[in-house]
Amino acid sequence: MKAKSPEFSRTTITELMIPSYANFGGKIHGGILLSLMDKVAYVCGTKHCGAYCVTVSVDNVNFLQPVEVGDLVSMLASVNYVGNTSMVVGIKVIAENVRESIVKHTNTSYLTMVAKDDKGELVKVPPLLLETEIDIRRFAEAIKRRKLKADFEQQMNQEKTDFALQKEINLLRDQRCEVNLRN
Q: Coiled-coil intervals in this record (predicted)?
């Protein structure tokens, strides 16, 4: 299986933000942006592996700045990492106010996609050909994020196993909550 560069599958989707995309506060609903991120990740991942791709996780969705009605939003996607059957697609979201020529970076997110065949079985994806320092940095960062996520999940599972009510109540002591246990 021949390696493919991130450039091979790099994808941009651009869409005008219309009033029906707005939330109750008048800004573009986060769910609209997440849907667009999922679409561009699908295209990018599918271009890389030539197979149907599905999203298995979405990491680090931070809404840095609001997106306004009338903004032209571009989703820039790149395969940053590949495993055996999975890929991490990095997405940078840019919103442009076309009337005022103001461009702002509103989101960065990482979606893990897996490749499947026509029967729904996982399929191996091509290796990633790293051609630039940026490619290497992104691949290494993805490895570090995966390790941090695995360590966090392991720690949380251990904490569930070792649950001690009084210890958890002590953790809540200086928080904005009240504990009133019912018997």
A: none
